[in-house]
Write a structure and sequence with these properties.
CATH superfamily of the largest domain: Beta-grasp domain
Oligomer: single chain
Shape: globular
Helix content: 25-40%
Radius of gyration: 15 Å
Number of domains: 2
Largest sheet: 5 strands, mixed
Distance between the termini: 40 Å
CATH topology of the largest domain: Ubiquitin-like (UB roll)
Structural class: alpha+beta
Length: 154
């Protein structure tokens, strides 16, 4: 089996078929930006994009991926060495404290910005409500998404 992650193809062994995507990304591919949080799909730390949709990788078995699925991790948001607007906004506003949830926050926010280039604060809060931040950086996360929308639209 092969998977497409960040526009690169990777071959997996047959023994990987029942493993969760999170562990393939971290252990097999060395893409450690995707974090392990709760392991049950609730906290959002493990969020990646599968065919453009924010998906919890800790509960996604490799064998459940659609054929030719395109997987994007936080490492794949950069383009030609340039940070994605959401990454730039998180840096500019110094959003993270511990940073554990940040990759999942950015992946969920990116999905929102792709669907709604200028989201309202209500849209942001509704989209982000299931991504948990133990440090309580929700206000800064919201501000970063608003900033990213302006950066993306420039």
């Amino acid at each position: 089996m092969e998977i497409n992650v960040n526009d690169k193809r990777f071959s997996l062994q047959d023994s990987d078929q029942n493993r969760k995507l999170l562990w393939i990304l971290r252990d097999k591919l060395g893409l450690i930006g995707t974090r392990y949080g709760c392991g049950a799909g609730y906290c959002g730390a493990c969020t990646v994009h599968i065919n453009g949709q924010a998906t919890r990788s800790c509960v996604t078995p490799i064998n459940s991926l659609p054929p030719n699925a395109k997987i994007v991790t936080v490492e794949g948001l950069t383009s030609d060495g340039k940070l994605h607007p959401i990454q730039q906004a998180f840096i500019e506003l110094q959003v993270p404290q511990c940073g554990w949830c940040m990759s999942g926050q950015m992946m969920t926010a990116t999905t929102l910005l792709n669907k709604s280039p200028n989201p309202s604060r209500t849209e942001i809060r509704n989209t982000m409500k299931n991504n948990y931040c133990r440090c309580g950086c929700y206000h800064r996360i919201t501000k970063a998404i608003e900033l990213a929308a302006t950066l993306k639209n420039d």
